[in-house]
Design goal:
Shape: rod-shaped
Order of helices and strands: HEHEEEEEEHHHHHE
Structural class: alpha+beta
Strand content: 15-25%
Radius of gyration: 27 Å
Helix content: 25-40%
């Protein structure tokens, strides 16, 4: 009678676990960007940057673009002593300054509309870093197969890498500035990052797990 040698089966538990986790990972979706949990103003700003927009005044003939930091959020109607000035090329709202009142303080630039060019930061960052994101995905899958990560953890690693790619793109790439940016923030060289609020709101969420 032949003898039977019993061995411990490590392969079957590994196979079943890996198969189940890979199936969960295959059904997951990772959404990256300014997500629906952000406030409506931030979502609107993100959409304008990503796809571009032409802004028209709602209740006036012109948009009043503030030329001074203390004029932001104000209307020309709020400024005492303000007057209209047309120099033949541009139209402004000004007020007198100087001891004799013989100088003009330029407060607002009047424009019938402002076209903001597309300054994609979600699609553009992905298009320019597909290889980086692919490596992050490959690494996450490899570690899942080795038993180092679950599907949830793999999605977390991929989402974190994607967010880092977008934020790095926003810090380093200089897309074209609109006339609105040039007028209201002439010293700013990175229109995607002025206060950091948009960049800091980039996040990810996982669905389908």
């Amino acid at each position: 009678m032949s003898s039977v040698t019993r061995t411990h089966d490590d392969w079957t538990p590994w196979y079943e676990r890996t198969k189940a986790e890979l199936a969960r990972l295959a059904g997951a979706e990772i959404h990256v960007g300014i997500l629906g949990s952000a406030d409506s103003e931030l979502l609107r700003i993100a959409a304008v940057h990503e796809f571009g927009a032409t802004i028209h005044p709602r209740n006036a003939k012109n948009l009043a673009i503030p030329l001074r930091p203390d004029m932001k959020g104000k209307s020309p109607r709020d400024v005492e002593g303000a007057f209209f000035l047309d120099n033949g090329e541009n139209r402004f709202i000004c007020r007198k300054k100087g001891k004799k009142g013989d100088q003009q303080d330029f407060l607002f630039l009047l424009l019938p509309s402002v076209t903001i060019p597309e300054r994609s930061f979600i699609r553009a960052s992905y298009d320019g870093n597909k290889d980086v994101l692919a490596k992050a995905c490959e690494n996450a899958v490899r570690r899942l197969i080795l038993g180092e990560l679950t599907a949830d953890q793999a999605c977390h690693n991929i989402g974190t890498a994607a967010v880092a790619i977008v934020k790095r793109y926003m810090r380093t790439v200089q897309p074209p500035k609109s006339s609105l940016t040039l007028a209201s923030a002439p010293g700013k060289t990175a229109p995607l990052v002025q206060t950091g609020r948009l960049r800091d709101s980039i996040t990810y969420e996982v669905t389908g797990l």
